Each structure stands twice: as structure tokens, then as C-alpha cells.
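Problem: given the chain below (420 residues), write out its structure.
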Amino acid sequence: MLKNLPFEWLVGLRYTRAGKRSGRNSFISFISLISTAGIALGVAALIIVLSVMNGFQKDVTGRMLSVLAHVEVFDTQAGMPDWQEQAKVALRHPEVRGAAPFSETQAGLMHGGEALRPAIVRGVLPEQEPQVSEVASHVKLGSFADLKPGEFNIVLGVDLARALGANLGEKVTMVLPQGTVTPAGLVPRMRSFTVVGIFAAQHQEFDAGMAFIHLQDAQRMLRMPAPSGLRLRLADMHRAPQVAEELKKLMPAHVTVRDWSKLNANWFAAVQTEKRMMFIILTLIVAVAAFNLVSTLVMTVTDKQPDIAILRTLGASPRSIMKIFVIQGALVGLLGTALGVGGGVLVALNIDVIVPFIEQLFGVQFLSKDIYYINTVPSDMRWPDVTTIGIVSVLLAFAATIYPSWWAARVKPAEALRYE
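Solution.
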């Protein structure tokens, strides 16, 4: 099969392999091996790091969306008195799986002599909330179902309850920024609530700054005749931006529709920026390994100048000479990329086994339970990332072959054979 290949391929393959007789050839091939290993390590590191970052993003997003809805439809001015009809309209969309009304406000909570703690207070219907969030399943103490209309009960985040020093059955005071005008002046709107549940979503923002009350109690506190809007659950959370745009066409013009990515735009923008910077930094590592091929090929060209001269005198064109060294460098780049992709994918898919083994072997713990909400390293390998990394690595390796190959093509046979 090899005999049928063009001579450029045969010579390029021969130069890539280690020489058996010449120590110089063996050294050059050893440098090629090091270049291959460097490309493989860089590619594998890039795949593993991006997979771990994707895993953390997926894990945090999952925790956020256990409390947040995928899409919110609301009217902050007049509320949504016809929310049942609007819910039916939303549920006609094939992507929408659940809908529930809500009202939301910022308030201050205090208990006993503790200082006032800011919190987002959301009014919900306990029987419908499981259709759009998992907060009911995160209640560790008490019951989410104890949010009953007119009883002014409240469910607190675990860190918020700890900061307030409030336990089940105790009273907390809610203070709203909207005041009430009295003969004595503007008085803050206040109401006492009984703690009937404590939830732990394992997300600092929600556990330390969110509370739930019954929707009717929220409307009474806010003096609104209707809920603020609807919260929707989708079959695929990643399609939320597209679905939100489609729902805008179905809803009245005065209604605002926004998806979960808009609610946390700063966080997602920061994550995407971090991923891009990490990709650039690790790509530079691959670039350093790829451009080691320059020194390898320059040494090969210097060592093989007599061979190049003989090939030229036998009729090989400069283009053919250039192709030989491009093939040699490209083979090293392809081999390194293939090994890196294989190793990186293997580690990324089995990181949940590899990391615990390393922790047990060396007696360390990368993510302490006392500091982090998660104690395992997550991984979410995505094939588009792997494909992009592989293509970039091959292109860098190919770019590294251009100058040495061009230099080889300019070798003059008479000068190369002068001292031979």
C-alpha cells in the first residue's frame, strides 16, 4: 500500500520515523516525539479544563433553575388579573410544560433584636409552584404546603433563617419599602409572618436572600388586585430565549417576557468571558507545543540537505521538497492532536472516577464540603468544543511547517553537496 503513495509521502513518513543507523536522525525523531507529546498534552488539558468549566456552569445553572423559572411573563404596572387565560395561551406553545402565577417584591426581614435583612419575597400558589420550580422539594424543615392564604406564613432560605436567628414556628417581621401615609407621616408597611419552612437550594444568592409567601398574602401586602404575572417551565431550558421571543407574539403588547438568561445576564456574561480567556490561554500552550515543530523541522532540513540536493538533481521540484516537510510536520501535528483528543475525552468522561482516586491516593480534597456546596468535580464534555480544539491544533501545527518547508525548497544542490 505504501508503495503506491507519491514519493513525497514516502520520504515524509521516513523522516518522521526514528533512524536506525544515524544518531542524528534518532535525536531529530526524539524531538519530533517531544513535539507530539506536547501537542497531545496541550489538547488534552484544553478539553479537560473546558469540560470541567462546562460542568460547573451546568451544575450552578441547575441549582439556579430549581428556584427560578425558565421564562417570566409579567406586567408590573397593572398586574395580570386574567392570568388563567394567559396561562392557557402560554401552555398552547409546544415547549411550555407548566405555568404558575407569582408576585415579587424586595423587602426587609427582621427577627427579635437582629438587624434588618434584605430579601426578595415571592408570592406563589403552593399547589401550582411545583409545575415551574423545585423549591418545594428543597424544603428541609417544615412544609411548603403550609403556605395558606390569610395565615401570613413564610418559607425562608436556610442562610437567611440562620442570619435572622429564626426557627420554625417563630415570627419574623416583613418591612416593605412602600410606605403608608398617616396623620403622623409616612409609615413603613409592616407585617408579622410565621416561619413554616426552611429551604436549601444550595445556591448562595437564593439561600441567603429569598423567601416565599402565599400569593394572596403577597397581593394584600403589595395592595395589588392581581398577580404580577406568570412563571413558565419549558421542556428544554436552553431554548428559553427563542421561546420567549415566540411568546411575545402571543401575549398582549404591554406584557414583558424575559427568559432565565436575562435574569442572570451578568453572571452568564462573566462565565462566558472566563471560558473564552481560558480557551485563549490554553490554546497558547498548544501553540507553544505546535511551534516546537519549527525547531524540529529546521534541524531536519539542516541534517537532510544532502538528501534534498540529491532529490533536486534527480528532478524533484521545489514544490515537492516543500511538500515532504509539510507532510512530516502535519503528521506530527495530526498524531499529537489525535492522542490529545483521545486522552482528553477519556479523562473528561471519567473525571468523576479519576478525581476521587487521586484524592484517596494523596489524601487531599479538592472541594471541601465545609467551603463549597458541591464536593465533586463536575464535567460536561461537549463535542463542538472538542471539534474546535482539534481543528485549531491541526491548523497551528500546519502553520508551524510553512517556514521550514519553504527554507528546504530554497536549498541549492551545488552548495549542499560542496562538502559532501
